[in-house]
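Reviewers of the previous submission asked for a worked example of the structure-prediction workflow described in the proposal, so we include one complete record here. The input consisted solely of the amino acid sequence. No template or homolog information was supplied to the procedure at any stage.
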Amino acid sequence: MSDQLVYEMDAEEGRLPVPEPACATMAWECAGERIEYVASAGHIDVRTDTGKLLGKMFALSYVAAPDARASARPVTFCYNGGPGSASVPINVGGIGPKRVATDGLRHVAAPARMEDNPATLLRVSDLVFLDALGTGYSVVAEGTDPQDMWSVDGDADTFARAIVSWLTRNNRWGSPVYLFGESYGTMRNAVLMRLLSERFVPVTGVIMLSSVFDWAQKMPGSLLGYVGLLPVFAATARHFGRAGAGTDEAAWFDGAMDFAERVYAPMLLRGDRMTPAEKASSARELSEIIGLPAELIARNNLRIDLTTFRSSLLADEGLVTGRFDTRFTTHAPCTSIEVSSPIAGDASSDAIEPAWNAAFRRHLQQIGFAGAPEYPLSNFMKIGITWDRSHEVPGSGMRAAAPNVAYDIAAALKHNPTMRVAVLGGRYDAATPWWNAAHDISNLFLPEDLKRRVELKLYSAGHMAYVDEPTLVELGRDLSAFYR
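From that input alone, the workflow returned the following structure tokens.
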């Protein structure tokens, strides 16, 4: 384990020597509206039922200046995913009171400009951004096996304990509680909303941004994985003028969604029982939708994985598309580097994440928090690769090696039928395709009263939808309505 992740216990006091907490009074202003708030940075003890310290979770909270209504003001616990990602993107990129100004689909130049976020969720809720243990400034206690927490169930348990601790320490048990997770944070959300319900912690609402629920669909060779990617490929091909000329963006995507279910899925189910003529005809039909040569599609048996698509669509221009947002492009790597290699990067990440990191560190300085020199914005290579994805299926007593945590959502809604869930996504998100999330929710067969508690909303954006400024405004408006 890295020294950044495991700190030696203070033997005399039995605690981890983390930096002192810090806070500062700040103000958000936009379009004549003003909110004074306190920004606080510090750590939350994560302890077992017997009091053993598992670690300290770093939390950056924004609480509006207290008034007579403070106890009734919602509080939202926010996090990214990975597994192994800190909560910086969703904070200074998305819904925090300050954000990094983006530049369309272009790489953000340094130094990045910070601005008051016109779509901040602080307008309707206090915000607490949490870093999973082992990411950011969150630390694991000596003598604790991190693999116990680097798992689907262990991770959700640590977040449940941290949330209960924050509510208690800040006298907020009277506040409506919301959860906001992005990417793997939506898988965490699904398990966490059930855990909290089972532990008698009422949750008012849950926001799922760029969702993944059924891990089996992420496995290589999954037919549902290919089906889910097809609408993303179609939207991307249209964006770059390789298919769908003259069509409306939303209509073209919706048509691809329908094609994926009604036509493409049966194609894949046929396998090599297709005749050569049927296969060639199907490849030509797919070519018209996703913009790749029919010969390439046929050669891949109608199964185009993400790496093949990203490296092939704009190969004649020497470009590779992004993964988190396929509208971003970068120059193709040299022939010795695979497009999917971490070395090759992702244009949609490279364009903004360094700016987020620098801006966040400046923001902590303004608050007065002195953290360690290193802040692992993403620790996937250490945490995500070894992550235990097995999960106890609710009510079954069995563990699934590749879980579908959508069932946890259903179980949580039955525990708490007043809770509401918003599932949000982007058309250009190839990391967590929209079709798969919509498919998983539709296959829960919820009764009508619970089905009405779940709303789905699609944006003209990628995985980190808030990078796109028009989407940011739309997202802010939709979230304000969700809280109302």
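Confidence is low (pLDDT under 50) at residues 1-14. We consider this example representative of the routine output the project will generate in years two and three.
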